Amino acid sequence: MSDLLSCAFTGHRPEKLPCGNDEQHPACLSIKAAILRQIERLYDQRGVKHFITGGAIGVDQWAAEAVIAFREAHPDVSLTIAVPFRGQADKFTPEQKKQYERTLHKANSVIVLQEQYSSNCFFKRNDYMVEHASILVAVYDRSSQVRSGTGYTVNKAVSKQRNIIFIDPKTQAISYHIGKKQE
Questions:
Q1: Considering the entire predicted model, what is its pTM?
Q2: If we measure between CA atoms, which residue out of 46, 44, 14, 47 comes closest to residue 31?
Q3: Count of CB atoms situated within 10 Å of the CB of 43
Q4: Burial bucket for residue 27 (CB in 10 Å: 0-12, 13-18, 19+)
């Protein structure tokens, strides 16, 4: 792990969340507010100043936007977007592409993990985020048995003994998984 006090984000795409693609839906606004509260708490209580997101639509974008907004008052905060492959936004809607391009432009760094799509590129992106963060914020229903990239990332973080902050997508209740004690 190269970044001791870094936080990565994972979460479902909008169609798997209570708000769907409606970012003004009360559930979506509540998830976004919960993400921002965790950024504030991690910064204030743990000194976390570096955040990583994958740039996909939904939670990845919302987390990136929250970090960017928080950074306005805290210029020592940085955002890295870990892009799984260069054409990630090719199938996004025009509005989603604009949102994606805005966040890429405002990020402190963008890491493109590979040039072309491959069947495992999203797993590589998720692995990169877990490897470079000591904390994972997951918008994830812990009782869900559905196989997903978010579930993969959570399981990878557990296996790497990372601390995980869970935000329940339906209730925004916070729960924790405590990984290895950090020095």
A1: 0.92
A2: 14
A3: 19
A4: middle
Q: Which long-range contacts (CB under 8 A, 24 or more apart) does 17-23 make?
A: 17/58, 17/59, 17/139, 17/169, 18/169, 18/170, 23/62
**H or E element that contains 59:** helix 59-73
pLDDT tens by residue, 39-69: 999 999 999 999 999 999 999 999 999 999 9
Task: Determine how many CB atoms are found less than 10 A away from the CB of residue 73.
Answer: 8
Q: CA-to-CA distance for 148 and 150, rounded, in angstroms?
A: 5
CA distances from 87 to 41, 105, 148, 154 (A): 34, 16, 21, 25
Which residue from 94, 47, 66, 88 is spatially nearest to 9, judged by alpha carbons? 66
On the CB side of 111, CA atoms within 13 Å amount to 16
- What tokens does 44 get? 């204030």
The dihedrals phi and psi of 72, each to the nearest 5 degrees, come to -60, -40
Beta bridge partners of 7: 51, 135
* Nearest C-alpha neighbor of 163 from the set 7, 3, 1, 2: 7
Do the beta carbons of residue 51 and residue 78 sit within 8 Å? yes
pLDDT-based confidence at residue 4 (cuts at 50, 70, 90): low
